[in-house]
Amino acid sequence: MTHPWFQGDRPPRVLAHRGLVTTDAERSGIVENSFAAVAAAHSAGARYVESDCHRTADGVVVLFHDDDLSRVTGDPRKIADVTVRELEHLMAGRGGLITLAQALTSFPTVRFNLDVKAADAASAVGTAIAPFADRVLVTSFSDERRRAALSAARAVSEASGHSIRPATSGGRSTIARVLAAVSARSDRLVARALAGVDALQVPERQGRLRVVTPRLVAAAHRHGVEVHVWTVNAPDDMVRLVVEMGVDGIVTDRADVALAALR
């Protein structure tokens, strides 16, 4: 049965990468993964927002990509070493901090694609998303972190009598096994590698390796798994990947452009 995260919309899906920061917004100081960036993606018509999760020193899960604050705020400290109040102050002029709880409650029609960036955030992410499992997809480069978040969500759901789990996309080790199985032309190994996975979220290329191929997309589709490609910002590439390659979703910094290109 298709997970609710995928229901109601037909591919191609546009996933707003860390929200939406237009050129004008960037000039005014708005940054990625801020409350304003998520609101802008929602306002532009994006149904899906891709974001990242870290945990502050006082245990609050926040939407933030890097493990430190230097690139976004100029502060060299790690997110794990600052409190949510300190982070709110640092983000005040940059579009505003958004916690995971705020994201899920403030944007009730948005479906979130959440990348667990830190091991110490996995359990807290799972606990927070459990009541919203119908509109959350959990991923991570680390399959261990991804599974830890899913396990925590499952524990909360079972305790409260809910049956819906979050959707999930495979991490690096899962993707490596899928690619090896596709290369070996073994549908049995593909099925084994994709067990429990709803989507593959991958770059089109990794160095010299072409990741996204018609064979990969076809293999995933045979087992009811979608393929989403990141991070695609050129309209011609968006259209090519969807029309020629048959991918199901585009993760992009310019959700507004993608929504227009893929109509």
UniProtKB/TrEMBL annotation:
Coiled coil: none annotated. It comes from the Bacteria. Pfam families: GDPD. Residues 12-262 form the GP-PDE domain. InterPro entries: GP_PDE_dom, PLC-like_Pdiesterase_TIM-brl. This is Glycerophosphodiester phosphodiesterase. It comes from Microbacterium ureisolvens. The lineage of its organism: Bacteria, Bacillati, Actinomycetota, Actinomycetes, Micrococcales.
